[in-house]
Amino acid sequence: MTTAVAQRLGHCRNTPHILVLLLAIIPACRADHPPSALAAGHAGVPGARTIVPPAGNEWTLPSGDYAATRFSSLAQITPANVAQLKVASTFSTGVLQGHEGNPLVVNNTMYVVTPFPNLLYAIDLTKPGGAVKWVYEPRPSDKSVGIACCDVVNRGASYANGRIYYNTLDAHTVAVDASSGKEIWKVKVGNIDIGETVTMAPLVVNNKVIVGNSGAELGVRGWIKALDAGSGKELWRAYSTGPDRDVLIGPNFKPFYPEYRAADLGTSTWTGDQWKLGGGTAWGWFSYDPQLNLLYYGTANPGVWNPDMRPGDNKWSMTIFARNLDNGEARWAYQMTPHDAWDYDGVNELMLADMQIDGRERKVLVHPDRNGFVYTIDRETGEVITTGKFVFTNWADSIGHRTGRPVENPAYRTKQGEVTRGICPSATGAKDQQPGAFSPLTGWFYFGNTNVCMDYEGTEANYIAGTPYVGASVKMYAGPGGNGKRGGLNAWDAAQGKAAWHIDEKFPVWSGVLATAGGVVFYGTMDGWFKAVDAKDGHELWKFKVGSGIVGNPISYTGPDGKQYIAVYSGIGGWMGAVAFPDVSTDDPYTALGVAGAIPDIKQASAMGGMLYVFSL
Predict the structure, then answer these.
(1) Contact (CB, 8 A) for 475 and 596
(2) Measured between alpha carbons, how far is 54 from 62 in angstroms, rounded to an integer?
(3) Could you tell me the maximum CA-CA distance found in the chain, to the nearest angstrom?
(4) Number of H-type helices and E-type strands within the chain
(5) How far apart are CA 604 and CA 617, in angstroms?
(6) Contacting residues for 235 by C-beta, under 8 A, at least 6 apart
(7) How many CB atoms are closer than 10 A to CB 483?
(8) 585: number of Cβ within 10 Å
(9) CA dist list (Å): 144 to 12, 17, 140, 193
């Protein structure tokens, strides 16, 4: 590592960002048992298939393909031989914050984006053990570290047109020449002075770079933008709140549910001008259907957690949007959690597939939401087809398929000045943004989960630009089953809206998932185990202990030697994982927006890290 790079990394050893500030502002059920797999014993879903070619020898997009399946067509690694996996190489990024996201592999080069300061490494895979070809340093503003909500993470990059595109924490998007590491363009997409940061991985489609912002906990107004891939020029922008002209809702907007068809719901479902601080940021994942030319994504929680400060449904927070890629015009929208009172961000992945449901072929998107429900939705119309709970969930009993609205349990709605106890799941959600996978071999969807509950009290909050705007006191703790079952891995039958099988884990599963044509599913744990299980029944096949908890997403690719490789980041962090940081105290269970009460023992299970691990047979 050069001296210059080392100097850039020095201040990342500590955690001075806004997570620490929020610790004091926000105040989770309780209780250690080994993981257990519960095989359902049935053989998958007939007629389920991918809609675009999946990832193969290379991994060029954040989720492997436009449909966000995280499915690899490589099949050298199978249940019969996966136990022979060994470490092929490792690489230290030199950064100790949370390593979310995943590398890319293009033309025998691997590209690694670090947390702040968002270095981009190009690693030559033709050299034994890999060798650094170049390092690009975008030099983001240190000020962004102080306002980032929940660690200084970065969820990765996209490759297109000989360029690597990614975002920096201080709300810039960059295009870098993939061969030389030379900066081609760098544009400002947000304003850190009002609390906007950018942590998500952009998606490049048809010469457009799609990006979204973070910062709902600072009263930021959510948006997504399409940038010209050649120049970085903004082509269109769609806000999550505000009048229809800002949300890009026009005559071609045809939502399935009638209640969404009134004009300017992005203002009328708020009180006064509260929509201007409305959150609904888009810091998760994008997917795209090339046949329909529709872009899909979810929006986050409404601004200010205290629901009594923003009466109404608060559209279009907590909403799945389908937009015309060419001009950003909304085709349909569906709000999963109207008038969110629990911080159930809706930014999780939207996995696209075609499948037979009730004897009819449907074009679907499958979305495991933080609110505890998995949604199977017709991606042409926005109709909810099936739903089901994937962890213990009590804030709502079901989703009404005629209306699409949750059937709430009023005992668990939160209020200002009153502690509502025993809400499940907690504000961290039944799962966070860590993306799942779809296997056309089984027809099932695979994703991690968090089994944590909470006590929640709304509190008064005042808006000051660039500072925390939360308005809640939260305490979290283990859900049913206690500390030995605070997370797990799910295989989900989206056609029937129910689990195929489930594996329990001691800690929340905060990693993404990879499914392969070899019939193996890979994921990681917060205490540092990288695991392979059988896609058919969840039987554990192999595991390896890495140096730090895994909150990144595994990928697969073919090396120059023709062998299949599996790669994953190690480096605990993110909202939940930040409890492992030395400067985050667990003495107060309300610390870190309440997650300190949920996993205080993570400090004994994982230290900070920053490594890439590559495995092969």
Answers:
(1) no
(2) 12
(3) 63
(4) 7, 39
(5) 31
(6) 208, 225, 226, 227, 228
(7) 18
(8) 15
(9) 12, 8, 8, 9
Beta strands 452-458 and 396-399: pairing type? unpaired
> What is the pLDDT at residue 43?
52
Instruction: Specify whether the CB–CB gap between 446 and 502 falls below 8 A.
Output: no
The Cα-based distances of 449 to 292, 301, 393, 490, 506 in angstroms read 31, 19, 12, 7, 11
CB proximity list for 273: less than 8 A, separation 6 or greater: none
Residue 394 CA to residue 471 CA, distance in Å, equals 23
Phi (first) and psi of residue 578, to 5 degrees? -65, -15
State the first-to-last Cα distance of the chain, in angstroms, to the nearest integer. Answer: 29
DSSP 8-state code for residue 301: P
Residue 593 is predicted with a pLDDT of 85
Alpha-carbon dihedral sign for residues 242, 247, 252, 256: negative
Strand residues in 4-85 grouped as ranges (E): 37-39, 71-72
Contact (CB, 8 A) for 477 and 27: no
CA-based nearest residue to 433, from 26, 149, 155, 65: 155
Q: What is the pLDDT of residue 29?
A: 32
Contact 247, 221 (CB under 8 A): no
Name the phi and psi angles at 10, rounded to 5: -55, -45
CB proximity list for 329: less than 8 A, separation 6 or greater: 248, 249, 250, 252, 253, 323
Pick the closest to residue 63 from 285, 225, 214 (CA basis).
Answer: 285
User: What is the β-pairing status of strands 540-545 and 611-616?
Assistant: unpaired
Structure tokens at 263: 């004009």
Which pLDDT score, from 0 to 100, does residue 299 have? 98
Residue 8's pLDDT is 33
Helix (H) or strand (E) run with residue 143 in it: helix 143-147
**Which sign does the torsion angle of CA 604, 606, 609, 613 carry?**
positive
> Measured at the alpha carbon of residue 505, what is the angle toward residues 503 and 509, in degrees to the nearest 5?
95
Half-sphere exposure of 567 (CA within 13 A, CB side): 30
- Exposed/middle/buried for residue 317 (C-beta within 10 Å: 0-12, 13-18, 19+): buried
Q: Which token pair is 375?
A: 């949604």
User: How far is it, in rounded angstroms, from Cα 325 to Cα 373?
Assistant: 28
CB neighbour class for 338 (10 Å; exposed up to 12, middle 13-18, buried from 19): buried
Q: What is the DSSP letter of 366?
A: E
So which residues are the catalytic ones?
217, 301, 343
Kindly give the pairing relationship between strand 104-106 and strand 131-136. Answer: unpaired
Q: Which two tokens stand for residue 160?
A: 């297109």
pLDDT along the chain (617 residues), means of 10: 35 40 36 32 72 98 98 98 98 97 98 98 97 98 93 97 98 98 98 97 98 97 98 98 98 98 98 97 98 98 96 98 98 98 97 96 98 98 98 98 95 98 98 97 98 98 95 97 98 97 98 98 98 98 98 98 98 95 90 91 97 98
